[in-house]
Write a structure and sequence with these properties.
The structure holds 2 protein chains of 2 kinds. Chain A is mainly beta. In chain A, 0% of the residues lie in helices and 50% in strands. Chain A is built from no helices and 11 strands. In chain A, strands 2, 4, 5, 6, 9, 10 and 11 form a 7-stranded mixed β-sheet that branches. In chain A, strands 1-3-8-7 form a 4-stranded antiparallel β-sheet, with no helix packed on it. Chain B is mostly beta strands. Chain B contains no helices and 12 strands. In chain B, the strands form 3 sheets. In chain B, strands 2, 5, 6, 10, 11 and 12 form a 6-stranded mixed β-sheet that branches. Chain B has a 4-stranded antiparallel β-sheet with strand order 3-9-8-7, with no helix packed on it. A two-stranded antiparallel ribbon of chain B has the order 1-4. Classes of the chains: A mainly beta, B mainly beta. At the A-B interface, β5 and β10 of A face β5 and β6 of B.
Chain lengths: 111, 114
């Protein structure tokens, strides 16, 4: 099993550009999450999904959109990137009451 | 609303000494509690969890944590620290009725010196 994978690993954008981050999991997990990690601020939840076709807002959803068209994939979109979105983005998945499995992260820089 | 506090940004210990990384939480009902570890340039890895039952929970790499309901704490401990334990540690909590969201602490950097 590959676990949780994220594409791409690194990306540099200019302000105003758009992009999509892809998260894929092969563990048949119902729940999937997108977090951002910034120095001194821990992990902040952006959006999450409790099942295929469903999404919900987390703590810091502004400027991001998500989709969960297939159970194994969770996409995070930035429609118009801003420097404040420079961060490391982590995807995670879990089954039920159990622990989360994290991907390796995507390091995004917005110039 | 649920919340987690990790009161120490940094913990320094000498190799071979016991270590403690502190975590306190706040939930309206009963909690599920988790510890994760993050090594540089990696994603978080699960260490251990408290769901129910014995208050002392044992996890990966010799770590353990004690759930204390009266003090609303879930401190991470290890009897003898290794240099390789140096990493960023996160505590997380969620309400048992809310399968969706967990709240993470800001993290504690553990440095074990030889």
């Amino acid at each position: 099993n590959a676990g949780v994978t994220q594409t791409p690993k690194f990306r540099v954008l200019k302000t105003g550009q758009s992009m999509t981050l892809l998260c894929a999991q092969d563990m048949n997990h119902e729940y999937m999450y997108w977090y951002r990690q910034d120095p001194g601020m821990g992990l902040r939840l952006i959006h999450y999904s409790v099942g295929e076709g469903t999404t919900a807002k987390g703590e810091v959803p502004d400027g991001y959109n998500v989709s969960r068209l297939k159970k194994q994939n969770f996409l995070l979109g930035l429609e118009s990137a801003a420097p404040s979105q420079t961060s490391v983005y982590f995807c995670a998945s879990k089954a039920g009451a159990l622990e989360q499995f994290f991907g390796p992260g995507t390091r995004l820089t917005v110039l | 609303a649920q919340s987690v506090a990790q009161p120490e940004d940094q913990v320094n210990v000498a190799e071979g000494n016991p270590l403690t990384v502190k975590c306190t939480y706040s939930v309206s009902g009963n909690p599920y509690l988790f510890w994760y570890v993050q090594y540089p340039n990696r994603g978080l890895q699960f260490l251990l969890k408290y769901i129910t039952g014995d208050n002392l929970v044992k996890g990966s790499y010799g770590f353990e944590a004690e759930f204390n309901k009266s003090q609303t704490s879930f401190h991470l401990k290890k009897p003898s620290a290794l240099v390789s334990d140096s990493a960023l540690y996160f505590c997380a909590v969620r309400e048992i009725w809310d399968a969706g969201k967990s709240t993470f602490g800001d993290g504690t950097t553990l440095t074990v010196k030889p």
